[in-house]
Amino acid sequence: MADCVFCKIMAKQIPASVVHEDQHTLAFMDLGQVNPGHVLVALKAHAENVYALDDAQAGAVFRSVARVSRAIRAAFAPQGLSVYQANGKAAGQTVFHLHVHLVPRHDGDGMELSWPVKNPPRDKLEEAAAKIRAQLR
Ligand SMILES: [Zn+2]
Predict the structure, then answer these.
(1) Ligand 1 centre from 30 Cα, in Å?
(2) Which residues contact 66 (CB under 8 A, 6 or more apart)?
């Protein structure tokens, strides 16, 4: 999957602000302009969508989602957290590599970075990623 941006991230060919890594998954802060501030949990193996996962992969993805979600809660105490997987043509995507979006929801008071935000400075995103990473040590 030479053109898959997620496979390139897994191969460390594209830098990512990693907050959690285990045998099967990599979780990182999206530093791009498409989904700034989202934390993405991706399976290391190329799998098109949730339908393609075997039970072991599905368990690994959900375990990582739960761990990173708890870390986001500990770091930012958001009022809510949206968790979704939007792979596929119907979502307007051109990259098909399973990844779950974790999007803290907050009305903005008392938090250093509110989501979603338009074009947040990269250092703010790196700072947020570091706070999440610190909760996963
Ligand atoms: Zn891929």
Answers:
(1) 16
(2) none
* Full DSSP string of the chain: -TT-HHHHHHTTSS--EEEEE-SSEEEEE--SSSSTT-EEEEESS--SSGGG--HHHHHHHHHHHHHHHHHHHHHH--SEEEEE---SGGGT-S----EEEEEEE--STT-SS-SS-SS--HHHHHHHHHHHHHHT-
Q: What is residue 53's predicted lDDT score, i.e. its pLDDT?
A: 93
pLDDT higher than threshold 60 for residue 46: yes
Is residue 99 annotated as part of the catalytic site, yes or no? yes
% residues pLDDT > 90 (the chain) = 41
Output the CA 28–ligand 1 centroid distance in Å: 15
Task: Note the pLDDT tens digit of each residue in 6-30.
Answer: 899 998 888 888 999 999 999 998 7
Lowest-pLDDT range, 59-68, 80-89, 100-109?
Answer: 100-109
> What is the pTM for the complete model shown?
0.84
Catalytic residue among 38, 46, 99, 106: 99
